[in-house]
Amino acid sequence: MARVFSGIQPTGDLHLGNYLGAVRRWAAEQHEHDAIHCVVDLHALTIPRDPAELRAKTNEVTLLLVAAGLDPQAMILFAQSHVPEHTELAWVMECTASHGELSRMVQFKEKSKQAAHVSAGLFTYPALQAADVLLYDTEEVPVGDDQRQHIELARDLAERFNGRYGPTFVVPKHTIPPVGARIMDLQEPTKKMSKSLDSPQGTILVLDDPKAIERKIKRAVTDSDGEVRYDITEKPGLANLLSILAAVTDEQPEAVAEKYTQYGPLKADAAAAVVEALRPLQERYAELAADPGAADAILRTGAEKARAIATPKMAQVRDAVGLTSRH
Ligand code: TYM
Prior knowledge:
Layout: E1 3-8, H1 16-29, E2 34-39, H2 41-44, H3 51-67, E3 76-79, H4 85-94, H5 99-103, H6 106-114, H7 120-134, E4 140-142, H8 148-165, E5 173-175, H9 210-218, H10 236-249, H11 253-257, H12 263-289, H13 294-321
Parallel strand pairs: 1-2, 2-3, 4-5
This protein binds ligand 1.
The site of ligand 1 has 26 residues, from β1, α1 and α7.
């Protein structure tokens, strides 16, 4: 079975983009793969966070992943900071990546424009992400489109390291879904739906109640020509609604477009489909969240399983680069 690894930040609230671009697939494919998924709490520190909120969000995201269908008995679900090999390998990756390479990361360029204080961690963020992936001999990384460049960097770093020190890392590849890889903000459909974007009406949270979902989709920005067709450039708002409905119903957006002549019924069907798709997750989350110790227990077991892989891998890396043994 192919080793699969992917991560999610415990910041903000889980939204429909995270679900359709990544999390839904993690759950659907966990039994066909050797799956490892990680709540990347260290990545969250690149921007100052309220400590209590970070702690709470780490637990919340863990339970949301389980509510979305991940089975911690069958796969590995853990928190990045519980496995110190991630930071250890991140340093080696920082010494493998070049300054120019990290400067070209689109996410860094965007985020550093918005931030008042640009931390060094924000800059080296993709080196830590490469470490996450390479530590587990990952073959496939299921992500949304916005992570493409980071995974391509991880590939380059693995190849460079292997060239320099001998075969050590599996060279990973990203798997990006054909539909749903880039869900856009409902109010600003040229921007991706995001946790950090201050756009509550444009973002559907996976825990939004049905009324909120219906309202947000009904008020989604479209255009005034009234023609239903899938055209990302000319009709980004409508294309986004078609993508959402297509992703949820496992169809192609072009095929969905052919079924409608008006925006109103398309919006109504998209809202109903999203409500139904999220209902099981919401019900399961309510059950899980009733047990205050649930997330801790899941993460503790997950970290043990993750370390059983990460520790020998890191020993191999230390040896390859010439760090003396600490045993
Ligand atoms: P994060 O936490 O921003 O997002 C988690 C996953 O959700 C996907 N995603 C989207 N997909 C479609 N449409 C959207 N609007 C949308 N917004 C987010 C992301 O592509 C991602 O797959 N750097 C990563 C976390 C990470 C990671 C890793 C991922 C850390 N280490 C190792 C893979 C492998 C991030 O911030 O994802």
